[in-house]
Amino acid sequence: MKLPEAKAQFIQAWGSLGAQWSINRTMAQVHALLLITPGPLSADEIMAELNISRGNTNMNVRELINWGLVGKVLIPGERKEFFVAEKDIWKVVSLITRERKKRELDPILKVLHQLAEVEGDNKDKNVKAFRESIEGINKFAKSADTALTALIKSEENWFYGTLLKMLK
Amino acid sequence: MKLPEAKAQFIQAWGSLGAQWSINRTMAQVHALLLITPGPLSADEIMAELNISRGNTNMNVRELINWGLVGKVLIPGERKEFFVAEKDIWKVVSLITRERKKRELDPILKVLHQLAEVEGDNKDKNVKAFRESIEGINKFAKSADTALTALIKSEENWFYGTLLKMLK
DNA sequence: TTGAACTTTCAAAATATTGTGAAAGATGGA
DNA sequence: TCCATCTTTCACAATATTTTGAAAGTTCAA
């Protein structure tokens, strides 16, 4: 396989992956393009490469910057802004995990905390079942929170070394 | 908060969570309803409770059964089918993880494997950068695969005990 | 074998999400 | 200040996903 085809396939695959997460397809494609491009790219180059509009490019690049996955680069003598992606995959995963935890886990933890205080008597089997469900889910969610927080803070080597050896 | 309101809030919250995953909102709501209901429910009861159509109910219940999250129950003397959800949250998470790994991680692993064999000379800095990106991502993806496979197979106690203690 | 009770399917409608591009808003050099 | 260049916004258009409900399919007791 030649490089241009390989690039296209990677962009496509990363895009599908993104689409299944809360990241939208184009955002993931822009990210993919920047990931495999060594130097910085301008908005125009991204537009041309992915065949998307200026507005779309702008919005998705901005969102990638919000996630911390992409940074602006100023090139002396150029008016345009250029963009580069964080290339270290461990950092990339860590940033994505942090963002998704904030959007997904944190809100449900809040709701679960409130729901634990539902009124009613445990003699009512519906109340009892509800309490037990919430309790179980809450216990798990708190553990997941601990685990993810640790993972986000941890070092690459800890993951590839310690944890992985334990799991294998 | 009274039970009916708490139920509604939980269904709502679980639905939003599902929507951010590849699970659709209604599927997650049906799941939530079954999770907090101690006994089995019929399609009609689900329809009534969530205000959704018969077709929608059928499709989503069927999908939940495919995921292994919900089972059919036959009640003697009744023609109707009834449904119950797996209540053990550890099993629930394990089933969801298995399904998502199959849909998301496995396909990208396949693509990465192919892309590792891109033609070209490392003297070309684009080829070099591409290879390095793919290599890094591939290494991580394989590790994630190992980690998730182990997690899916592992016992509840291992997660709440061993792993969590290590992370705290 | 019939028909009532129930489940499944699927084309069309409703809804939600994403993308476009022209216009408005910045920015900075002369 | 002015103007050329670049960025951002946003109403509308295009796409994609989800839901509906009526019709077709299935099952089983009589």
CATH class of the largest domain in chain A: Mainly Alpha
**CATH superfamily grouping of the largest domain in chain A:** Winged helix-like DNA-binding domain superfamily/Winged helix DNA-binding domain
Average pLDDT, all residues of chain A: 94
Extract low-pLDDT stretches of chain A.
none
Please give the number of β-strands of chain A.
Answer: 3
What's the CATH architecture of the largest domain in chain A? Answer: Orthogonal Bundle
Total tally of structural domains of chain A: 2
How large is the share of residues in beta strands of chain A? 5-15%
- Radius of gyration of chain A, taken over Cα atoms and rounded to an integer in Å: 21 Å
CATH topology of the largest domain in chain A: the name is Arc Repressor Mutant, subunit A
Largest interface: A-B, 61 and 61 residues
Termini distance of chain A?
33 Å
How are the strands of the biggest sheet of chain A laid out side by side?
Answer: 1-3-2
Biggest beta sheet attributes of chain A: 3 strands, antiparallel
Domain HTH marR-type (chains A, B): 26-71
Organism (chains A, B): Chitinophaga costaii
InterPro entries (chains A, B): HTH-GbsR_regulator, HTH_MarR-typ, MJ1563, WH-like_DNA-bd_sf, WH_DNA-bd_sf
Family (chains A, B): Belongs to the GbsR family.
